[in-house]
Amino acid sequence: xxxLKLEGISKHYGxxxxxxxxxxxxxxxxxxxxxxxxxxxxxxxxxxxxxxxxPSSGEIRIDDRPVAFHSPRDAQxxxxxxxxxxxxxxxxxxxxxxxxxxxxxxxxxxxxAYVDYAEMNRVSARLFSRLKSETRPRDLVRRMSGxxxxxxxxxxxxxxxxxxxxxxxxxxxxxxRQVAEVLDVIRRLRDHGISVILISHRMxxxxxxxxxxxxLRRGELVANKKAANSSPEEVTGxxxxxxxxx
Length: 246
Known about the structure:
Blueprint: E1 4-13, E2 16-26, E3 31-35, H1 42-49, E4 57-62, E5 65-67, H2 72-77, E6 80-83, H3 95-99, E7 106-109, E8 112-115, H4 117-130, H5 146-158, E9 164-168, H6 176-191, E10 195-199, H7 203-209, E11 212-217, E12 220-226, H8 232-240
Parallel strand pairs: 3-10, 3-11, 6-9, 9-10
Antiparallel strand pairs: 1-2, 1-4, 4-5, 7-8, 11-12
Helix pairs in contact: 5-6
GO molecular function, one term: ATP binding
Keywords: ATP-binding, Nucleotide-binding
InterPro entries: AAA+_ATPase, ABC_carbohydrate_import_ATPase, ABC_transporter-like_ATP-bd, ABC_transporter-like_CS, P-loop_NTPase
């Protein structure tokens, strides 16, 4: 079964061709490492999958059904979530409040409605436990490590029971120990049957968790192969153009 399938995805802005006939797929519970230099088309492809952009041509299929996204909300309805590099967390709020940001559960007592913080803490604790993160629901984000912040951002995506989680540079600018924590979280998402698209420049991290590697160069897909059949040296050559395709 294929969770996500892209067929001939192209995107142009006037005379600028950002993507050219990219065909790619990912299975349930698979980690796909998406690599390429700046300007290779990674961000454009991610934004098309996330519903921020519409492709100029090509088709997107989810669970073998053709879909058309006109907004990020459309993509979310199909089970696609994104953890962006800046994480978009509120430092002054607790972990639980960040997990539920904009989706807070409300209880009513007669005519009075109030935010159900107990429910937020309970569900958040369950999500952190699922990720095997040491993050606690009442912890303030501003006091957290980079790895804990990533766990909060990932837990937020799990609220909607996603099929696909895209992660943009999740291990950038964090310590070696925190990198290990984030990579463990990615493995746990995979173990729960969630497909993960990992966008990263950090070669060791990509090879540590990816089942397959895809490389973009100048808007074209130049490699799409099992990680076990590739190497950091090969990917470096593909990114720079020293190797034309693999």
